[in-house]
Amino acid sequence: MAAGAGRSIRWRFWLAVGAGFVLALWLLNDILLPFVVGVAVAYFLDPVVGRLQRLGLSRTLATTSVTIVAALVAIGAVMAVLPPLFSQIQSLVENAPDYTVKAAMRIQPLVEPLRDRLGLPELSLQELQSEVAQRAGQALSLVGSVAGQVAQRGIALFNLLGLLFLTPVVAFYLLRDWEKVLAAIDGALPLDHADTIRRLAHQSNAAIAGYLRGQALVCISLGSIYAIGLSLVGLQFGLIIGLIAGAISFIPFVGTFVGAVMALGMALAQFPPDWMGVAKVAAVFLFGQMMEGNVLSPKLVGDRVGLHPVWIMFALLAGGSLLGFVGILIAVPVAAVVGVLVRHLLDRYRDSDLYRGAGSG
After folding, report:
1. Using the 8-state DSSP alphabet, how is residue 251 labeled?
2. How many of the other CB atoms lie within 10 Å of CB of 328?
3. For 128-137, what is each residue's pLDDT tens digit?
4. Any idea of the CA torsion for 189, 193, 194, 198, to the nearest 10 degrees?
5. What is the pLDDT of residues 38-87, one digit of tens each?
6. Where is 281: in which H helix or E strand?
């Protein structure tokens, strides 16, 4: 009887802790971004610091070296990419109506038979151009309103300043004290369940590290392949289209689809009657997909992660809906942990009388 009461109290305690943690995330959502990004940066860079330690450097010296190099690389990348990126974005939005009409004119003869067969209304290029121009204007006004909100809202300004100044500090101290933090957490585990929790934590870490670190390298590689390839074949705005396709490739199938649609639409507006240019753009995406499917994903991510693409997409949508951008950042780690816990509970269920029956012995 006492054991049952103790178990009930323990369940209530951990449920209360979990509910308090979720409530704190919800209440502090507006100021969490610099800290979440700092934790993510520390998590990504911890293997590098550990390798430098094994080479003989102290933890503090290794952390300092890695943090300085990472900051310099980030600053250099931003300075090199952002100016042409912003220029291409502005030009793309301004010229989107004309490019859309040109692409529609190329596609219209191909879809006319299908339109007649389905009885659809005739496509009006003037209405299409007007609609796209309206959407482009809305996009520019949205960017302006967001910039105004960033300037007016203290929380948004805090997040921006935090990303610039607070995130490196958080990442540095977490990297330096990573082993101490893990030791403190390990020492606080309930003794009778510590081994099980450690095993589940190792499985969760393998899933998170395998997906996040591997998928980040996949996104960077694909973004580089698409941006460089589209620029070399002469596609206008190839840099921005390639970087967009690579950046959202962490969402299964979405990055490739969106990038291919944008690139081929731009190619149809730019190259014909030289259809070889369109073929080159398509070849860039085919090459990128071959590299992802046969080299990048198998080598960098592998099949040990255990995260189904549908589950990842659901987690990203749910995280964004509940906690905004912070929710998107933590969606995949939470999905990995939930997946490990669900598999553990299923194993426990299959070993129980609830699954095998009371008379199974």
Report:
1. S
2. 19
3. 555 555 555 5
4. -110
5. 888 888 888 888 889 888 888 889 899 988 888 888 888 777 776 776 77
6. helix 275-291
- Residue 87 CB contacts under 8 Å (≥ 6 apart), including other chains: none
Phi, psi at residue 178, to the nearest 5°?
-55, -45
- 300: amino acid identity, one letter: L
CA 97, 99, 102: angle at the middle one, nearest 5? Answer: 110
Both tokens assigned to 304: 């040990």
Q: What DSSP state is assigned to residue 225?
A: H
Q: Residues of the chain with pLDDT > 90: what percent?
A: 0
Residue (of 163, 86, 152, 174) closest to 326 by Cα position:
163
In the chain the first and final C-alpha atoms are separated, in Å, by 24
Distance CA 339, CA 330 (A): 14
Element (H, E) at 262: helix 254-270
Hunting for tokens 């990348």 — which residue is that? Answer: 77
Indicate the length of the chain as a whole number.
Answer: 361
Distance CA 182, CA 178 (A): 6
Among the listed residues 98, 87, 101, 96, the one whose alpha carbon sits nearest the alpha carbon of residue 137: 96
Model confidence, pTM: 0.63
Interacting residues of 9 by C-beta distance below 8 A, sequence separation 6+: none
Cα gap 350→307, rounded to integer Å: 21
List the structure tokens of 310.
């549908």
Q: Which is nearest to 289 in space by CA: 241, 246, 256, 254? A: 256
